[in-house]
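Changelog-linked ticket: pyrrole-2-carboxylate example.
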Amino acid sequence: RDRSKPPPRELPATPELKKSYDVVIIGAGGHGLAAAYNLAKTWGIKSVAVLDKGYIGGGNTARNTAIVRANYLTPEGVAFYKESMGLFETLSQELDFNVMYTRKNHLTLGHTDAAMRTMRWRAEVNKHLGVASEVIDAKQVAEIEPRLNMSDAVRYPILGALYHPVGGTARHDAVAWGYAIRAAQMGVEIHQLTEVTGLEVTGDKVTAVHTNRGTVQAGRVLQAVAGASSHVAKMAGLRLAIRTIPLQACVSQPVKPIINAVVVSGSLHCYIWQSQRGELVMGGAVDPYPLWSTRSSLEFKEGLMGHMLELFPFLSEVRMMRQWAGMSDMTPDFAPIMGKTHLANYYIDAGWGTYGFKATPVSGKRMAECVATDTTPDIIKPFRHDRFTRFEQVGEAGAASVGS
Ligand code: PYC
């Protein structure tokens, strides 16, 4: 490309839906688009259609709070998210599209001895696998985030934190659009408003994908539909260990820069960071019951604000501006479901709970490898869909920022 000119930023026009593709990807969110990009770029597979019942990045990709980190608890989770963070670091250059990845000194606060013990455990696993994480004390927490309420005369005093300097944020829609534009420029077709209504299975293969715009033959099919994983998997005859639960979030009115870090409190079930626009981005635990709805609730707002004010009492005058919800496909062990399935040409990328956005680059890379080679890359082997029947769960609940 001529480097004296800005890179093209437009999505090429989408051709008519064809009768057949080498690969059909269901879901034009970050994961599906990243897989399409990697299929074309790394594996030279360009006869790819990405189908979405809505629009590019309009599902959970649009509904997360843009936090990225690798400070997990299990060796499997840490290795996986470490690769993702490495890819985030260079994603703007890779896509020639600014995804605004920013390191933000991620802090997971510990308010009890038990929480501090888990932090130490996570720090040791992280360090062992080359991820920058360490336990810091209350004084060091106050140096990084001086506006936190460090009083010990509160319900949950801050004893210390798990400090993860490379944790931060990336612009979620830029990630989706960056992958979409670059994939489409290589010949991938992204068909929006194209809803998958059924899958035709013959023997051990999916032979066709039915959509509201006609039937498409597919050599291989990848589902990447966070929030609707059980519905789509059922079309392929696959029952997943997933419960789908809303996860709500909100932003405040924009204010001058006041918060530097990403601050998470597992005990108080809340987290906060300040966006480049000045809005405070906040969220909490998943809702207390499964529900197929992205409605916003007053209970969430009241609960979250109460907890947030325990950490940052000076926010009491700040107004909330927007509230929304995403759909979390929760697995029992808080780890994803990835890889090959019971069907020979059907692949799955699901179970993204409250941690899908930060896995976008690694999932795209590894699912593309899985589809292209029909073998499961080692790094995603622990996440296979049948681990629950083999008693081989991954046990990542202790590192979920916001529990259930
Ligand atoms: O895992 O960092 C996280 C997270 C933050 C909000 C939801 N999940």
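Closing comment: Example verified and attached. The chain is about 25% helix and 25% strand. The chain has a mean pLDDT of 96.
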